[in-house]
Amino acid sequence: MFGLATSRIVGKHFLHILSWIYVAGVVANVVGRFWPGIRVPTFLVIAISMCATAISIMIRELRGGRESTVTVALGHLAPLIIGVAIVLLLADIIAHVAVEQVAEPIRIWGIMFWVVGYATIVRDFHHKQKLEEDLKNKPGDAGDKNI
User: Fold this and answer.
1) What are the pLDDT digits (tens) for 83-98?
2) SS3 state of residue 5
3) No. of H helices and E strands in the chain?
4) Region 63-70: what's the mean pLDDT?
């Protein structure tokens, strides 16, 4: 089962993951020169989101192009992480400019927005996949014509 084609796909995507980690390090160093306190979060956001996307693509290629709930969840993890990071960044800027009481609801509602959106995307894909399986495996006629 683990043949040459599988090794090629895994090796290719492993190099993509390593290159994204390198790019994340370079971007984090550039950002860290202007804002030192955000160097590590920048690295983590870029590295984790791009690695999750690369792993999602690798799993999809290994499965022959078929989507699964895991690939959809990993593929949509990057917008979730980046969105939450932007919300936290904006809330911190607002906390420095205005008062902390204004920034706290922005943090809470912003994170809730991104997490609920992510959960909705994954849930909808899972339900769509189960519906297609049920329709494909339905015994008897494809549907009642009288209804």
Assistant:
1) 999 998 899 888 888 8
2) helix
3) 5, 0
4) 82
